[in-house]
TrEMBL record:
Family: Belongs to the BamD family.
Record-annotated membrane-spanning stretches: none
Keywords associated with the record: Cell outer membrane, Lipoprotein, Membrane, Palmitate, Signal
PROSITE patterns found in the cross-reference section: PROKAR_LIPOPROTEIN
UniProt subunit comment: Part of the Bam complex.
Residue stretches making up the Outer membrane lipoprotein BamD-like domain: 46-252
Record's function text: Part of the outer membrane protein assembly complex, which is involved in assembly and insertion of beta-barrel proteins into the outer membrane.
One Pfam match: YfiO
Keyword Cytoplasm: no
Protein's UniProt keywords contain GTP-binding: no
Name used for this protein in its record: Outer membrane protein assembly factor BamD
Length: 267
């Protein structure tokens, strides 16, 4: 007699057991396929990101900045959290700068600072942001000066000065700090000259308080500027016109102590 049983309950339990085994095997097979597909897709993405980054680097090496920007922007867009993401963003700042795209370079720098507040190369980002503004101020993106330097808008120079100052404040020992300090000397004198140009404008209109305030800005915000004596002279003359004898005398004393040969220049 065979092992066949006509007991329905027993047959049902056997079928359920066999079905469970089949289901488990099917799940394992499908899971394995899904895992394999995910791993394959991940490898494909990594290879694609690697290829884009390599192509971008090749373009940068030969100075083809427009193509480099295109590759890096595509890499940043398609793989924002990949292995090359942060380096691609850093390279983009530099590529935008070399491509004379001030707005994009500054925007990319600001985004990197915002998204990576503790990144080890953040000093470089601040330096590049300042450098972009610095060369824009010098006329890097302009064909020629339309007017004397002191008469031109100084907003970009002010931004560059602020960027370099922030770098030095946050990272005083950065390898970029010394370069930033040297550039700030030029920017300090440039901004001071602009303030005095505005002060002269007010003097011609006999707006003595406004002129004195502009000159005082030079003393307070740009100490050591080459045209500090001119600022003190304007303060002396403006305060005298306003009848502010005490302030005029104080300004005269500072001028006499630091620049005795310029006292005779006071009207």
């Amino acid at each position: 007699m065979g092992r066949y049983s006509s007991n329905p309950a027993k047959i049902g339990r056997m079928l359920i057991k066999k079905f469970s085994v089949v289901v488990v095997l099917a799940v394992l097979i499908l899971s394995g396929c899904a895992t394999s597909r995910e791993a394959h897709e991940q490898r494909r993405k990594e290879q694609s990101a690697q290829q884009l980054y390599t192509e971008a680097q090749s373009s940068m090496k030969v100075g083809n900045w427009r193509t480099a920007v295109e590759k890096l922007e595509r890499l940043d867009s398609l793989y924002p959290f990949g292995a090359f993401s942060q380096q691609a963003q850093l390279d983009l700042i530099y590529a935008y700068y070399q491509n004379n795209d001030t707005e994009s370079a500054v925007s990319a720098a600001d985004r990197f600072i915002r998204q990576n507040p503790r990144h080890s190369h953040l000093d470089y980002v601040y330096f590049m942001k300042g450098l972009v503004h610095f060369y824009s101020e010098l006329g890097f993106l302009r064909e020629a000066f339309a007017a004397e330097l002191s008469q031109r808008d100084a907003s970009t120079a002010s931004k560059a000065f602020g960027d370099f100052a922030e770098l030095i404040k946050r990272y005083p020992d950065s390898p970029y700090a010394a370069d930033a300090r040297q550039r700030m000397v030029y920017l300090r004198d440039r901004l001071a000259a602009h303030e005095l140009h505005v002060a002269d404008y007010y003097i011609k209109r006999e707006a003595w308080l406004a002129a004195a305030n502009r000159a005082r800005n030079v003393i307070e915000h740009f100490p050591g500027a080459a045209n500090t004596p001119e600022a003190l002279i304007i303060m002396v003359e403006s305060y005298e016109k306003l009848g502010m004898t005490e302030l005029a005398n104080e300004s005269r004393k500072v001028l006499a102590h630091n620049y005795p040969n310029r006292v005779a220049d006071i009207d």
